[in-house]
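User: I've been trying to design a sequence by hand for this structure and keep getting stuck. Would you show me what you'd pick, starting by listing the structure so we're on the same page?

Assistant: Good idea, let's start from the same input. This is the structure you sent:
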């Protein structure tokens, strides 16, 4: 029985990457509180299963944290690329506003000039009509 327990402890420690002395000390603490009529092998297996479940829970938490860290890095990259796009679009919008203002100013000047030409034309034609009478 003792050799089976030692083999089980060594195999379990090797599989989960624990120090054998720590696992044995945990088992000794558990065994101290067990009445003498209880089968120590089943308690040992219970302790090993409990330890394995704790390690599995820890590994799943680490996996979750790593996924969250990867998601954060991905989102930061996405935000930075969106910031670049926003700044590019803002600069383009400002340039279009300036162009719109300049074109509007030229268009107003064109309309004023056309109005002046039309007024001059009508005055000349009216003067010519008055002279012809």
């Amino acid at each position: 029985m003792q050799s089976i327990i030692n083999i089980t402890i060594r195999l379990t420690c090797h599989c989960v990457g624990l120090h054998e002395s720590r696992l044995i000390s945990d088992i000794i603490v558990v065994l101290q509180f067990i009445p003498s009529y209880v089968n120590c092998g089943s308690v040992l297996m219970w302790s090993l299963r409990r330890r394995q479940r704790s390690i599995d829970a820890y590994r799943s938490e680490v996996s979750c944290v790593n996924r969250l860290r990867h998601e954060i890095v991905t989102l930061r990259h996405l935000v930075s690329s969106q910031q670049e796009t926003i700044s590019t679009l803002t600069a383009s919008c400002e340039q279009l506003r300036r162009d719109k203002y300049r074109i509007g100013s030229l268009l107003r000047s064109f309309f004023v000039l056309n109005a002046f030409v039309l007024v001059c034309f009508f005055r000349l034609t009216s003067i010519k009509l008055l002279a012809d009478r």
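That's my pick for every position. To get oriented when you compare it with your attempt: The chain has one domain: 2-132. The helical segments are 2-16, 20-32, 40-132.
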